[in-house]
Amino acid sequence: MFSEWTGIAVMYGLTVLLAIPLGKFIANVFADKPNLLDFMRPIERLIYRLGGVDETQEMSWKASLLALLTINAVWLIYAFVLLLVQGSLPLNPDGNPSMTPDLAFNTAISFLVNCDLQHYSGESGATYLTQLGVFNFLMFVSAATGIAALMLIVRSFLPKSVDTVGNFYVYFVKAITRILLPLSLVLSLVLVFNGTPASFDGKDSVVTMQGDTVGVSRGPAAAMIGIKHIGTNGGGYFGANSAHPLENPNYLTNMAEMVAQVIIPIAMIFALGFLINRKKFALMIYGVMTIGVLMLLVPTLISELHGNPAIARMGVAQPTGAMEGKEVRFGPVASGYWSILTTVISTGSVNSMHDSSMPVSGMMQLLGMMTGAFYGGCGVGILNFYYFLIIAVFISGLMVGRTPEFFGRKVEAREIKIASIVALVSTLLVKGGTALAAWLFVNYPEAAWTVKPSAWLNNPGYHGFSEMLYEFTSANANNGSGFEGLGDNNFFWNYATGIVLLLGRFLPIIGPVAIAGLLARKKYVPESSGTLPTDNGTFGLMVFAVIMIITALSFFPALTLGPLAEYFSLK
Amino acid sequence: MATQSSSPSLFQGDLVRTAIRESFVKLNPAILIKNPVMFTVEVGTLIMVLVTIYIGVSGDQTQGSLGYNITITLILLLTLLFANFAEAIAEARGKAQAESLRKTRQETPAKVIRAVGNMYTNEVQTISSAQLKKGDVFLCEPGDIIPSDGEIIEGLATIDESAITGESAPVIREAGGDKSSVTGGTKVLSDRIKVQVTTQPGESFLDKMIALVEGASRQKTPNEIALTILLAGFTLIFIIVCVALKPFADYANTPITIAALISLFVCLIPTTIGGLLSAIGIAGMDRALRANVIAKSGRAVETAGDIDTLLLDKTGTITIGNRKATNFYPAPGVKQADMVRIAALSSLADETPEGKSIVELAGADVTRHLNTTGSKLIKFTAETRSSGIDLVTGERIRKGATDSIRNIVERVGNHFPAETDAKAKEIAANGGTPLVVTENEEVKGVVELQDIIKPGIAERFDRLRKMGVKTVMVTGDNPLTAKFIAEKAGVDDFIAEAKPEDKMQYIRHEQTGGKLVAMMGDGTNDAPALAQADVGVAMNSGTQAAKEAGNMVDLDNDPTKLIEVVEIGKQLLITRGTLTTFSIANDVAKYFAIVPALFITSIPALQAINIMRLHSAESAILSAVIFNAIIIPMLIPLALRGVEYKPIGASALLRQNLLLYGVGGVIAPFIGIKLIDLVIGLFV
């Protein structure tokens, strides 16, 4: 038991220890200060030249968002078409078929938005070409989109009123060449040396100890698994994701993948602190996020170690905790830790089956995705946090008797309107989607679809409700993990979650960038002793309270009917 | 602080009656739609009315009993009425305050002078003040009540303004200068003046103020709009939550009544702040009015809370307007004792603080032997600018400003000594005021008067500094004197030898740095600066131009009023913030009351969430809705008085308010709902 706890302590400690210098490095990259990777400069120049980008050009927030949305639209079409015809394209040694339009729609969006919700299984649903050319590619560009989007808000923190937010393309290219590419290369190498495949050969066949012959899927997996974690993507090469022995062979790779998926989200916090030269502010954000993560993590670990009361009632001892759906080589502590970290950030890769988690853990995973602002995905975590910051600044500014201001800019009706809409949309997508699914399940159980609504749920009752809630929550949070008991590869779930994915990705990027763009233009008012400091514990507490209250108020009834009802019934 | 602010009890009988009547009038959806939160409550109430009628007619019991539905409907209606009442009572109080000021200008006869061609003759025609139009000229003589606001175009008079300001000492108003403005309702004590009417009837500042308090022309301030948007956002979130609950409940095989869904919705949306929001805004204007400040817009009051820099005139604000005698300097060849005796004599009958201070400085030893029986007092007039005494022995003793005394002395051919002249200049250069004394038109010496810094002013500046407000003293004094006084009073900066354009420049400079600046002024030459300042407070005694340029008018002409105005602005915002926090924090307990109540029949395990142990589902819902309704009237006094501002630093203030209204807001409804449930338990 002791070594299990040490394991996660080391994992977390190592993550933070590496994130601080990485944050400094990222700040240097985006502030154009000399850094280790300046040798990438010619390659970047070439990319700018090929893309017709003038790297000195300053863009407004509107132009930047337009650029962001346009290139994303192009990738979406590219990915959709490739997935539709993958069966007839080369690099398909196992002869896997093309995707159905609804699955291709869902999958293309899912990888584009850094979610990687997978309604297919990599072994049979994708070819080597699409694994590399679509998934692997989108993993890089979607993560870079998030990082570049975060860079678009940096100037709203600086004490100078400006109309432009920088050059989106430059941020985007640098995020790939200097951050994502080198880091994922390191992780992929670690994986290759621990047994993860990296070849273009087809299935291998193995004779098991029982004497059966089994075809074992292979392929260029290591390259994808590297960026899958570094870019908080989470889409597995294989269907079982990081619970698969070839995707995550041992405790060491488990640790490496764990550190890798959290490192950029944490490093981005510090990078922001260095970029705006406000380390205390970065510490406030880090503190709030870390406390949030701990509040989700501790109940999860307790409930997992406690085991399943239903099994205990059968007279079965569970000395190692709840083991259903977990890999013996990781155990409940490392699995619980992974399940929370992967849901608070937007990775959504799994090393255990979340569907089998205890109800409390399931609720904590849901909450992690519902807030989406504790560490969060590459870049977008802080963007999500940003609109909570704006609401917190507004209410607490009033409470100290000044019209609210944030980094010297007045927060007024327009900013509040945008922040409210973003908060509103996330509630609407999750609750609306789940309500629609519940409504179909109750009223049209026998609808003439390939998979009837009555056949969606492996587990009826409260857990079935959680499965539907989890699917929409995961889609909205662009997380990508799932309660896999849900029969999700069909018409309704592919389209419904596809739409939720798109809105859940781009509105929380557009909103904060727009707010920051509007604020950056405003008159800068220097701080006085009447100004509310936003970099201390008091304000941190306020932000934390705002996040918790908004999340709790939006989702309490749904959580009551799902995990809470299950928990109290099981007890 | 010559505020005559009476603070009547919050709920006076007649005001309450008006407010109750108004709360029903305000149920009109066309009015209520301005407040999105309460409007949705009204929609919910209407749905409940329909449901209740349906149950009454059909006898269908699937939506709960008729009595239960009627009760819920009535409580929802009460919630609306309470919110309307909050706004109505705030309006009624504001109006009452404004009316009481307006009473001072009831119908008075006006002696109008009709123009003949371009000439105003002295043909006077008496009409009612209500008939006065802008541009009319009227005449006022001693004893007359001035019938309307206006500007003196000819003459000079002493005027008793106590009806408006509460200050009993008469003031001098004269044509041409910065003190040319007169206010309707005040009384002329001496001399006669011709006054030109400057406002149309019904458009005076007070009329504008009353209109601002009344619903019609009240515009939401930018901050109020932003908050309304946030509250509307919350309301929409809860619409989603409640609508989604229906399919969720279907999935869980739980029938949910319409009454329960609407109750949950009304409890969750921020009705507390939604219901009190406009009352808070009106109360802010009302508090300003109680401090005898007329704000021309709600926005001005709000901006006052954000002020970074405060420009204050030295005289009257930082120093006591009246200076005190500090030294006697005899003219060459005059004995000190003689000079002191003459100075004391000149002031024995002088009731002004300066005069008294001269007698005081001379000392009892000197004044004891003075005999003024039978002598004739010469009072100070604005024209002679000197005063004195003619003794029975025939001695004529005068004191006054250097210039006026020089006139007196040189008129009779006497010489004004160069030494005294030099001394007077030296005193002036050190921030003092020289007063020259004469006996029989011969200069006997000069008395030095010095500024006295107001007691307690340093503490007030300290308080302002803690609020984050920088204070700047504006004075005509030379830089050395200015620096001396600035340091002594504890202001952060000063503008010495200030000309009106210096103020303007300073304001512009601060504003380019992003600061918000407030200033007070009275003269026409202050008008541009008043207009430039973010908060410009014009004194009521000031010129019409100044009053037009500023965005507030101070009826008391009290320069320290700015400090109060800043606090009123801050209070306004704090009250909004804390009640918003309270309102939203309340939702936690309401969830714990209602959600288990909804599902407890189909999911008995959820009894574990019923942490308040409310005794039945229906009583839980009723308790939550009742709590939600009665919390509004309970908070009306707080909304009207405002949450106190303490200059303890922003973070400390946030902690304190977060604890009180955030944590308190989470806990209070748990207790309240439980208590109401216990009471309901007695009846059911």
Automatic annotation (TrEMBL), chain A:
Keyword Membrane belongs to the record: yes
The UniProt record lists the keyword Transport: yes
UniProt-listed Pfam families: KdpA (PF03814)
Subcellular location: Cell membrane
Keyword tags: Cell membrane, Ion transport, Membrane, Potassium, Potassium transport, Transmembrane, Transmembrane helix, Transport
Domain of life: Bacteria
GO cellular component: plasma membrane
Topology of the protein relative to the lipid bilayer: Multi-pass membrane protein
TM region positions: 6-31, 65-85, 137-158, 170-193, 258-276, 283-302, 373-400, 421-442, 492-520, 541-565
UniProt cross-references to InterPro entries, sorted A to Z: KdpA
GO MF, any single term: potassium ion binding
Function, in words: Part of the high-affinity ATP-driven potassium transport (or Kdp) system, which catalyzes the hydrolysis of ATP coupled with the electrogenic transport of potassium into the cytoplasm. This subunit binds the extracellular potassium ions and delivers the ions to the membrane domain of KdpB through an intramembrane tunnel.
HAMAP family xrefs: KdpA
Family classification: Belongs to the KdpA family.
UniProt xrefs under NCBIfam families: kdpA (TIGR00680)
Assembly and binders: The system is composed of three essential subunits: KdpA, KdpB and KdpC.
Protein known as: Potassium-transporting ATPase potassium-binding subunit
TrEMBL record, chain B:
Binding residues annotated for ATP, in chain numbering: 350, 354, 380-387, 399
Keywords, in A-Z order: ATP-binding, Cell membrane, Ion transport, Magnesium, Membrane, Metal-binding, Nucleotide-binding, Phosphoprotein, Potassium, Potassium transport, Translocase, Transmembrane, Transmembrane helix, Transport
Name of the protein in its database record: Potassium-transporting ATPase ATP-binding subunit
Domain P-type ATPase A: 122-214
Listed transmembrane segments: 36-55, 67-86, 225-246, 258-280, 591-609, 621-640, 660-683
Subunit text: The system is composed of three essential subunits: KdpA, KdpB and KdpC.
Protein's gene: kdpB
Binding, Mg(2+): 522, 526
Gene3D superfamilies assigned to the protein according to its UniProt record, in alphabetical order: Calcium-transporting ATPase, cytoplasmic domain N, Calcium-transporting ATPase, cytoplasmic transduction domain A, HAD superfamily/HAD-like
Coiled-coil ranges per UniProt: none
Topology of the protein relative to the lipid bilayer: Multi-pass membrane protein
Family: Belongs to the cation transport ATPase (P-type) (TC 3.A.3) family. Type IA subfamily.
Top-level taxonomic group: Bacteria
